[in-house]
Amino acid sequence: MTQSNPDQYEWLREIHGQDALEWVRARNAETEDWLVTDDYRALQQSLLEALQAPDRIPEVIKRGGHYYNFWRDAEHPKGLWRRTTWEAYLQDEPDWDILLDVDALAAAEGIDWVYAGVILLRPAEGDPYRRALVRLSPDGGDAVAVREYDVVTRAFVPSSEGGFNLPVAKTRVSWAGPDALYVATDFGPAADGTPSVTKSSYARTVRRVERGSTLAEAPEVFAVDQNHVLTAVHHDSTPGFERDIAVDAIDFHHWRTHVRAGDRWQPVAVPTDVSVAFHREWILFAPRTDAQIGDTEVPAGGLALAPAEAFLAGDAEVTVAFAPTANTALESYTFTRSALLITVLRDVASAVLVARPEDGWTTREVLSPASLESISVAAVDDEDPVAGEDLWLSTSGFLTPPTLQRARLDGDRLTEIVTAKRAPERFDPAGLRVEQHFARSADGTRVPYFQVGPSELTLDGANPTLMNGYGGFQVSLTPSYSPAVGRAWLTRTNDAGRTGVYVIANIRGGGEYGPAWHRAALRENRHRAYEDFAAIAADLAERGVCDREHLAATGRSNGGLLMGNMITGYGHLFGAISCGVPLLDMRHYTRLSAGHSWIAEYGDPDVPEDWAFVRGFSPQHRIAELDDDAVIPASLIWTATSDDRVGPVQARTMYAALTDRGFENVWYHEDLVGGHAGASDHEQAARMLTTSYAFLWRRVSGA
């Protein structure tokens, strides 16, 4: 085999270079010519049908007297921003008031806009919501235009009338008041040449932009070091608790939070690995490592509170509301008008606790759903005098479609429970069951995984099995309902009459057991995430679920890095790999797109001591270490040209390096739009999912 040099592919690093894009189109054609069959088209249509089904649950957020939603369907692939009333929402077919038709906007302006969110301006007391900042991406990437919109006139506010209109960039913005914004974006270099963006490609400075003024005229209000990740300033407009908050993201896991005190920014006096948040009169702390906050020791993964005004004045009366145990982790929290609701994971299944200040923030369990299911809890509107104790309850599982309920918190009980929406089944769960198993990793750690498949599973190693993993950035993979997995894998049958088995791997690097589970696979310990994944693959084989020829694996982004390491380090375990929007070239990742922001997660390859261990999990560089007779899994590497977070370069050069070494059965696909999500509308999402699932099924089903 020919040895490859990872630095020889400079021409592929020109993301929009003519030669590079011609190469992309040629690779796409090869993949599509081989993969797209009648079965592929039928699956794509089935997944599209599920993705744009009209009876999906329209998720809403309450603002004033309305419930706002963004919706895509077959007639509106780019989507509608709309709102309704509570009474109408309870109907099977609510009467929606259309605020913005993105398809019509894109057609009128000749720009392929992708909706990226809305920020509504809190009106004066007694007035209705009217003004909003609409975020629009031209290609599905992270860079967006921000434009002011009037929901009464159903029109953007013209710049000639003082309307805010920010150009496309990686912008973070907050209303600073009815006539001003806090804008963190690329303002161009300063007079001395200092850039206004960090090495991570995000904003380094924040300016306060008054209505009618330009970005260039706006004064700088906050700035951070160029080596830090980013900064942003947010105005908390909660009546009676208004405050300006600035964040200096030092790296991906360390922050410094500041609160404006007169004409200066007061730093919150806590260690930088403590996440800080404010809610009304409270300040909250969530440390990644054991932290001394005031006179209180707050454990890693815990949640603590203090009166904000007193704490900022130096009176550090801090109370721990949640302390994790060996098998529990903090997942999220929300406030009603009178109480704090904390969602925790217990061996990766959800439970909800309630705590109140008058009880010293002592927690009591208020909700524990069925085993191996997930629940999310969110306040409906804690400021509403009538609905202030109301909660959204959303439950789902691998075989249980989502249900959205609304309930009222009364003491430690949920009352007045109303089922607002219930999604129908998108695939037949008959004969399927969910199990949880634990594998032993190389260092003896017990690693959980979920297995979904036939309840009467023949344990002879011949079941088409798909593993999914991530293992990074303290992201937890929890039970959830996926029509795509159900239709493309769990209910699909091969020629031998076997249906698919689906596995979620809860490996280290994730947050399933809190920050310690994450830290266990950071930087020089990254190999533990890969050993965990491999241990689960081996456990599946030992239990007779599947052998190598019947085992596929998939992962995206950091999960794509996981897949790259499975290809180059654990190929003996897998028959097929789908590696999506991946990090793969760890020698250059800090110089590509937003890669510099992840140094705290992986290490800095420009520091020799770091490169010594980073090289060990750089798939691009592990290729050279493979023997000439090495066998790697059949591999599909896929990405998007418009991905401005990871970027397409690493996927391109990985494929080129593998094929230059002579490895066969490696395939490549790159969508020109879609951003890091890989898709910007349902049709593109269906195609992306079908490409991945069809490739894997074809390789490990025995078809």
From TrEMBL:
It comes from the Bacteria. GO terms for molecular function: oligopeptidase activity; serine-type endopeptidase activity. Its EC number is 3.4.21.26. Keywords: Hydrolase, Protease, Serine protease. InterPro entries: AB_hydrolase_fold (IPR029058), Pept_S9A_N (IPR023302), Peptidase_S9_cat (IPR001375), Peptidase_S9A (IPR002470), Prolyl_oligopep/macrocyclase (IPR051167). It comes from Zhihengliuella flava. GO terms for biological process: proteolysis. The lineage of its organism: Bacteria, Bacillati, Actinomycetota, Actinomycetes, Micrococcales. Residues 498-699 form the Peptidase S9 prolyl oligopeptidase catalytic domain. GO terms for cellular component: cytosol. This is Prolyl oligopeptidase. Residues 6-224 form the Peptidase S9A N-terminal domain.
